[in-house]
């Protein structure tokens, strides 16, 4: 089972993602607050920022009907992610007989001239039962993966594999980040802070201005605003819970909301949602269906005072169109707002980009004072590593007992 239905009062919460071909309309009814507390370890595909855990079986399947399959035993673990705090490695070693720690670092996370990270030896690879990682690094292995790791069962029918993720562990961290940047943009914290620091003196509200020469600086409250979310997985449900607590109205675009709530699956329904939204949060994964789904036409459908957040994947939006929309807002700061149909939005918060890291001179790196830019870091809480290790140890114990894994994407699940 890849999705578990849960009920919040009279509202059913279904984890899912939008696709280009099956966009739901802008909801003939808004969604109420999600489950409280949100599901942290539901059975579903990996959300945009899921720290992947691959638990594998060292036992071979029975070749004949009179052979019994052995209970898988997790005795040797390869850790490829730089766990912090480091005592999490000790926690793993207290539960797994052999733990090999070979942290791999990507250019997205580290901008340095450090040499290549050490790689596990062929002997270690030959004996590992499980891997805990962010993703499998294709350049880590200099030979055929199956040959080098005979105890692992790859995703083939003749090599049974249990593949599981840690879906939900980032919901708290990214949910808080989403609310933080939303409030920063609505309350114009960036503008106020930058003006005061530039002037190096006290600058009062009247001097900061607003729209028009005589206007004061006015903020926007989240209460009563329409908060649209693209995708409705673990992270989205946590954002919906938090935003609901501030009094926002939540609407979502997702492909598996019960059809009786909607009347169509046409792409125009996405535009209808964007027309209604004051805040648009993109949590979509990268796929053939979602790449470029927020293009020039979609940004034109947004209100000119709306804000856009992308905490999903960078290639799901047209970055040039987004930059143009933000520049247009800066250039038209004294003009009336409240329209749709023009390529102009008030602000944005971007945690993901295409490519990563951004090259020097990229339009996102300078000149857009109405953008909050973070380097794919909204997930970085130490507690996420604690949760990832706890999920892995739970799966290792369950597999040692012959039980299915939680969050299983492939193989035996709970």
From TrEMBL:
Pfam families recorded: 2-Hacid_dh_C (PF02826)
Gene3D superfamilies to which the protein is assigned, alphabetical: NAD(P)-binding Rossmann-like Domain (3.40.50.720)
Entry-linked InterPro entries: D-isomer_DH_NAD-bd, NAD(P)-bd_dom_sf
Keyword Transmembrane helix tagged: no
Any GO molecular function: oxidoreductase activity
Keyword terms of this UniProt record: NAD, Oxidoreductase
Domain D-isomer specific 2-hydroxyacid dehydrogenase NAD-binding: 180-377
Protein name (database record): BZ3500_MvSof-1268-A1-R1_Chr5-2g07862 protein
Organism (species): Microbotryum saponariae
């Amino acid at each position: 089972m890849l999705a578990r239905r849960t009920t919040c009062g009279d509202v059913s919460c279904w984890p899912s993602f939008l696709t280009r071909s099956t966009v739901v309309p802008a909801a003939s009814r808004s969604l109420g607050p999600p489950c409280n507390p949100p599901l942290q370890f539901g059975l579903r595909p990996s959300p945009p920022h899921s720290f992947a855990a691959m638990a594998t079986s060292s036992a071979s399947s029975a070749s004949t009907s009179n052979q019994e399959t052995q209970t898988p035993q997790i005795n040797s673990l390869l850790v490829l992610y730089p766990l912090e705090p480091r005592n999490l490695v000790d926690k793993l070693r207290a539960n797994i007989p052999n733990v090999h720690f070979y942290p791999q670092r990507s250019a997205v996370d580290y901008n340095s001239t450090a040499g290549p990270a050490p790689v596990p030896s062929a002997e270690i690879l030959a004996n590992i039962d499980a891997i805990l990682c962010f993703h499998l690094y294709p350049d880590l292995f200099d030979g055929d993966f199956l040959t080098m790791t005979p105890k692992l069962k790859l995703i083939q029918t003749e090599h049974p594999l249990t593949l599981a993720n840690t879906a939900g562990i980032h919901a708290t961290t990214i949910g808080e980040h989403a609310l933080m940047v939303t409030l920063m943009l609505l309350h114009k914290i960036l503008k106020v802070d930058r003006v005061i620091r530039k002037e190096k003196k006290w600058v009062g509200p009247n001097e900061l201005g607003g729209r028009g020469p005589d206007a004061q600086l006015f903020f926007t409250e989240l209460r009563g605003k329409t908060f649209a979310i693209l995708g409705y997985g673990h992270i989205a449900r946590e954002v919906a819970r938090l935003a609901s607590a501030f009094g926002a109205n939540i609407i979502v675009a997702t492909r598996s909301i019960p059809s009786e709530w909607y009347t169509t699956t046409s792409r125009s329904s996405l535009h209808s949602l964007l027309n209604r939204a004051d805040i648009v949060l993109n949590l979509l994964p990268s796929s053939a269906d979602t790449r470029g789904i927020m293009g020039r036409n979609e940004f034109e459908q947004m209100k000119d005072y709306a804000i856009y957040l992308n905490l999903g994947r960078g290639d799901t939006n047209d970055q040039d169109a987004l930059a143009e929309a933000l520049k247009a807002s800066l250039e038209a700061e004294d003009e009336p707002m409240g329209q749709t149909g023009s390529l102009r939005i008030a602000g944005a918060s971007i945690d993901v980009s295409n490519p990563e890291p951004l090259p020097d001179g990229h339009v996102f790196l300078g000149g857009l004072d109405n953008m909050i830019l973070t380097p794919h870091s909204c997930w970085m809480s130490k507690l996420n590593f604690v949760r990832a290790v706890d999920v892995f140890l739970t799966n290792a114990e369950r597999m040692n007992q012959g039980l299915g894994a939680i969050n299983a994407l492939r193989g035996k699940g709970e």
